[in-house]
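Listing S7. Sequence submitted for prediction.
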Amino acid sequence: MTTNANALPLPRSRPQFAATLRNYLSLTKPLIIIELLITTVPAMVVAQGGWPSTWLVIATVIGGTLSAGGANTINCWYDRDIDALMRRTRNRPMVTRAIDPAHGLLFGIALGAIAFLFLLATTTPAAAVISLVALLFYVFVYTVWLKRRTPQNIVIGGAAGAFPPVVGWAAVTGDVSVAAVVMFAIIFLWTPPHFWALALRLKDDYAEAHVPMLPVTAGPAATRIQIAGYSVVLVAVSLLLVPAASLGWIYLGSAAGLGAMFIWSAFRLWRRPDSVSPLGLYKFSLLYLALLFVAMGVDAAILG
């Protein structure tokens, strides 16, 4: 009887272990990683002028996932104080202490280090270094330096999210070309209207946490104007990829059509703020970026 009583807690360890794994996984922000990887693979196809080595694609995706996951985890560790003040983030594992903050930090650093070594061993030195630079930029420039100090935080710091296609390009070619820089610029210019649309909805949360996002410091009206302005510049730059990467009508038509929809959505948000939800633009911006990069990959694979 004593043996059976002592054995009762054992089945409970499995759900607890699974919950711990889920908590560690959530620290990496997997949904954000998926969006980043969607921009990596098409860049590799454009760089190759067709489908590159499947193993190289898999290795780059694995390395990019580990690196982005490490950066996101360290971000969760550093921001756990302000995360506790916002409804959207107050249940993150290091806020609730479901994951010990010291363990979370070590986990993030380990992911970043493994990612660098893995990319160095399986792709190219350029891809490994660029991936590491992206991690360090996100942690130290955006998270530590800019996020709590300036409403331009997401403009400058958002560059960290623009590195994945450059990593993909460097994994194929070993260097960086004008086309890779244009891809970087596309995501760099996409990030402010994308994130500010969400920030408009979460303005009170950011105000409560004293994070100077643009809707808090400049107000919703000024933010909507900035979103509209960035959308126009974004679409113009997206068209530059046609000559820069020698792309054809598939990408050109997609970039023009998707761009027109993006500008229309941004201007509707600006001109009709009482009837147009910023979440509509936020969700469309995710679809826009994914379809834009898929279009460039399809164009390169078919017409390249």
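Caption to Listing S7: primary sequence and predicted structure tokens for the chain studied. The CA atoms of residues 118 and 163 lie 17 Å apart. The chain has one domain: 25-303.
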